[in-house]
Design goal:
Layout (H helix, E strand, L loop, with lengths): L1 H12 L11 H7 L8 E5 L2 E5 L3 H31 L2
Antiparallel strand pairs: 1-2
């Protein structure tokens, strides 16, 4: 999107402080790729915590966590199905 690119370009040039709250991973990846210039804070379950790493690292961890949760749910569903067939 041109508007996201324009905003990211402007933020990269800006020398002041900015707080960005966004679900747009493209924007966050662009503006949070420099550990000296940016901090990543995560809001989850009513808690706010600083993330020690880059946004892309957090995104990869989150994807892995979601995949593990889905695998666990699938395994549990298969176990329930197998238990139901044994009756």
């Amino acid at each position: 999107m041109q508007s996201i690119d324009a905003l990211a370009d402007a933020l990269e040039e800006f020398e002041g402080g900015v707080v960005i709250i966004s679900h747009d991973s493209k924007l966050l990846s662009r503006v949070c790729d420099d550990a000296e210039r940016s901090e990543v804070w995560i809001v989850e379950d009513g808690q706010v915590a600083e993330y020690d790493g880059y946004f892309e690292d957090y995104k990869e961890e989150l994807i892995a966590e979601i995949a593990a949760d889905l695998d666990e749910e699938e395994r549990e569903a298969e176990e329930r199905k197998a238990a139901g067939q044994m009756r």
